[in-house]
Amino acid sequence: MDVFGLLGNPVGHSLSPPMHEAAYDELGFDARYVTFEPAPDDLGAAIEGARALGIAGLNVTIPFKQDALAHVEPDDLAARIGAVNTVDFSGEVPRGYNTDAVGAVRALEHHDVPLSGTAVVVGAGGAGRAVAFGLADEGMTVEIANRTASKADALAEEVSGATGHGLDALGDLLAGADVLVNCTSVGMDEDATPVPADALHGDLAVLDAVYSPIETRLLADAAAAGATTVDGAWMLLYQGVEAFERWTGEDAPVDAMNEALRAGLC
Ligand code: ATR
User: Fold this and answer.
1) Do 238 and 102 form a contact (C-beta atoms < 8 A)?
2) Nearest CA to ligand 1 atom 9
3) Does residue 266 surpass a pLDDT of 80?
4) Residue 92: which residues within 8 A CB-CB, separation 6 or more?
5) 145 C-alpha vs ligand 1 centroid, how far in Å?
6) Running DSSP on this structure, what letter comes out for residue 205?
7) Which of 24, 132, 177, 246 has the most CB within a 10 Å radius?
């Protein structure tokens, strides 16, 4: 039996186990996906121990994504983002990837959103970093807006062609934008949005990385403005799909994984 796992703290409410196990069931894989909560100082030992035990792959989540970088050989994208959320043990050394960036890209592609033109990324934390690098790598011009403008400026210096702004620039930025991604925590379990409703318009595609609730205030405002909306469960789904495909080399059964994820979110 293959064992996959998630390292994080806390991981009790994670939807990754049902999402990945739905994929194993669908494809008839003899595999399990389990969660682990190592102490912060034990992260390196946990990754090394997983390798020694023959665990096939690990996801890594808060608060370990940045620290995990030091314990694996990251690919170029994970190294630039500065965070690893997927570890593959199939080679000589543990390899680290960041599938959050690809998760956002594939979520947009699933909704037929063209990845060209200008993307406004709101937020410059961990999620903002991943999405900014991911969309810039697709060839989009990335504008980063953050409550703390200096953090947006610092991130923009690292991302090819990007520019940093404060949230007060959102009105002007969105007027000419094609894609908007909320990477702040605003709207999570609250009726709030980081983007003024009157800045949204029908030529935008709006992805909210927040998935609780599924329809955030931002997505409701975006739908009312006639924008294409992509909820955060799609991004969560596709980071898992990408991890599954890295580990197994097989196309993931996306519909089965989506169904299990959404059942867990309701
Ligand atoms: P994550 O890893 O999920 O991105 P994070 O690294 O803590 O989490 O980043 C949180 C992001 O949400 C940051 O961009 C933060 O803005 P600051 O850099 O100014 O702190 C943003 N954020 C959190 N609460 C916010 C609020 N009430 N209004 C606007 N932005 C907020």
Assistant:
1) yes
2) 125
3) no
4) none
5) 11
6) E
7) 132
In angstroms, the Cα distances linking 38 to 3, 82, 86 are 17, 21, 16
Mean pLDDT of the chain: 97
Find residue 205's DSSP bridge partners: 179, 228
Amino acid (one-letter) located at 96: G
Tell me the CA end-to-end span of the chain in Å, nearest whole number.
Answer: 30
* Ligand 1 atom having least distance to the Cα of 167: 29
Q: What is the pLDDT of residues 108-161, one digit of tens each?
A: 999 999 999 999 999 999 999 999 999 999 999 999 999 999 999 999 999 999
- Judged on CB neighbours under 10 Å (0-12, 13-18, 19+), 41 is exposed
Q: Are strands 73-74 and 95-97 parallel, antiparallel or unpaired?
A: parallel
Instruction: For the chain, count helices (H), then strands (E).
Output: 10, 12
**151 in catalytic set:** no
| Exposure of 201 in the CB half-sphere (CA atoms within 13 A) | 11
> Contact, 117 vs 177, CB < 8 A?
yes
Select from 59, 53, 57, 88 the least CA-distant residue to 72.
88
- CA separation for the pair 23, 20 (Å, rounded): 5
Give the whole-number percent of the chain exceeding pLDDT 90.
Answer: 99
Please write the tens of the pLDDT for every residue from 190-237: 999 999 999 999 999 999 999 999 999 999 999 999 999 999 999 999
Ligand 1 neighbourhood includes 124 CB (under 6 angstroms): yes
Ligand 1 site, residue 127, Cβ cutoff 6 A = yes
CB 193 within 8 A of CB 167: no
